[in-house]
Amino acid sequence: MNTRKGSSLLKSEKIRKSKIGAGNLLPAIAIIIAILSALMVSFSSQAELAVLKNDIKALEAELGIYKNKVDIITKSIEEKVTTIPAPEHEHEESKESEQLQPTVEFMLQTAFTDGSFSFLGMGSNINEVKNPTLYVTHGAVVKIVIENGDGIEHDFVIEGLDVHSKHISMKGEKTSVIFKAEREGEFYYYCSIPGHRELGMEGKIVIEEK
Ligand SMILES: [Cu+2]
Question: pTM for the whole thing?
Fold first, then answer.
């Protein structure tokens, strides 16, 4: 009785052992599968990476083509811009006066110093002279260039000679008047912006006999 019991115990022990053995194998297989699938993932992602690298290369090539196109367009724009004539900085009084060829030329710059305005002579014998007296001979074609030197709106008018310039208000802006000195005598030039003549923008032009 005892031995029979003992043998059946042994049998069940064997079965239990073999069951434990199979139970130990399953996690091992699971681990192997996990490793394999991880390897597969890394392999497939490497393949994907290779594809992406190719895509990037293709995109870079395309980008190169676009860059070339942009360069070509930029060049053509630059060429067009350089062929556009620069705007004339000096605007003449009228078409009629443009046809006159000046025989004498003066340059004046507007100035605002110590609370007063003036026309400052520029160049030759009137350089830096405030409201210089301009001497011209009868019959001369006179050109007077006025440059804005203070950034305040001004113009240039000669009383009694029907000479009016355009208004200039930007610093560095220029305008000019051209007229024939047909009448002998002394005439006042001034700025016709209200208050400016009173604040000092007044000088003389003397038209002398030849
Ligand atoms: Cu003025």
Answer: 0.55
